Amino acid sequence: MATNSSSLSVSLLLSLLLILLAILSSGSLTISGHAFSIQEATVAELQLAFKQNRLTSRQLVEFYLGEIRRLNPVLRGVIEVNPDALHLADKADQERKAKAPSSLLGLHGIPVLVKDNIATKDKMNTTAGSFALLGSIVPRNAFVVTKLIKAGAIILGKASLSEWVNFRGDAPSGWCARSGQGKNPYVLSADPCGSSSGSAISVAANMAAVTLGTETDGSILCPSNYNSVVGIKPTVGLTSRDGVIPLTPKQDTVGPMCRTVADAVYVLDAIVGFDRNDKATGEASKYIPHGGYKQFLKPYGLKRKRLGIVRNPFVVKGSEVTKVFEHHIQTIRQQGAVVADNLKLANIDDILNSSASGELVAMLAEFKLSLNAYLKGLVASPVRSLADVIDFNNKFSKLEKTKEYGQFLFEAAQATEGIGSDVKEALSNLAKLSRNGLEKLMRENKLDAVVTPGYEFAVVLAIGGYPGISVPAGYDSKGVPFGICFGGLRGTEPKLIEIAYGFEQATKIRKPPSFKP
């Protein structure tokens, strides 16, 4: 007992020391006599500092690498950093100095962390947080990474995640074998949520300018909610999944996680587009507006929008979150929106029950097929199938310290035998629930979006491949953040961006992390 108590005290002291260092750090640089604060700086502010010679990409990357060294031992939001990051920063600075056309790109010289299930063809690993894929070699960059690089971004490193996108077993949110337990930077004991926990933790704590996450069912919206950042979960197919370790092609999507709506939109503009290696992008690319999404960053974007509130079961009477939510609804009305309250979503109990809806049945079968295809496509890998991964985990569970978390979802997926009649029935039921649920609700009430507190509406959006945006909305009495979620039908990102940006500008809720123990 004495040994455990001593270890706990040392761990607590280390955490408190790092917290103190974080609080004392100003994040300011003095360049050519001009002070510039990198902490909380937006993409637009960073680009202006570049233009005015108040900041270089090397200085920016050095700052974030320093913050990762300082904060990551406690927060565990980053798995590894790109050893070429400073070289890429120097290259960006040279391009800017030479006034190269590439230096005019929207994300030029901006460091970005990508979730560790998104492939990068560089010196870093792509492992979904698991030792099973350590040392594997991907055939190419994920399409979204290629798009980021073409937009001038610097790939700073890999963000941690809930291992295997929270689909292995019963491990806690934010935990993976390679980096350990991710911590919420606002309240270290609070849930960071998953699976894109590391992306949210890192951008909230200023360990990166912007980040990328992925979502199958809540994995962008939930971490954004709990870590006080903006998360955009795009329409499925709007962003390519090529090179992303899959869960299910029906629901997987890649999206930005940033400190502001504008930053998230800049990243979204960079990563959307048609990809011949992902057929879902062929249908979804028709939704991309001419001129991109930046044009919808309108300060009064709530004006004349019609928003619906589905209270049951998303609004819990008497809770702290609900009290703040009611206040926000008044603000939304004051900004010129029409609010349709107390709407009913058909079959909501079935939608929220993954077994009753068929979501879990479909997910298990599609996971096995899509993961096997991904693993077989690797240039080199210690594992080539889901069965290999299960065997690896059984063999090395003591090394990974993961035995207590199990892998019952993996085993259930391995037991499936392709897309049979049960899976087809499940997929048909999901489509029916979406048609009779959100689609009917929005059509009959002529809604531009549905608004709910928290992140739980993510399930409704997930099964239909619909988009959603989470925006910081407040902090409870313990200091734990919570968000507000705006969701809509496929391709309605322009309206959702107007609404989310209008809300953000009217409220300006977000504040930097407090690192409370």
UniProtKB/TrEMBL annotation:
Pfam families: Amidase
Domain Amidase: 60-453
Keyword Nucleus belongs to the record: no
Position of the signal peptide: 1-27
InterPro entries (UniProt xref): Amidase_dom, AS_sf
Keyword Magnesium appears in the UniProt entry: no
Keywords: Signal
Protein name: Amidase domain-containing protein
Source lineage: Eukaryota, Viridiplantae, Streptophyta, Embryophyta, Tracheophyta
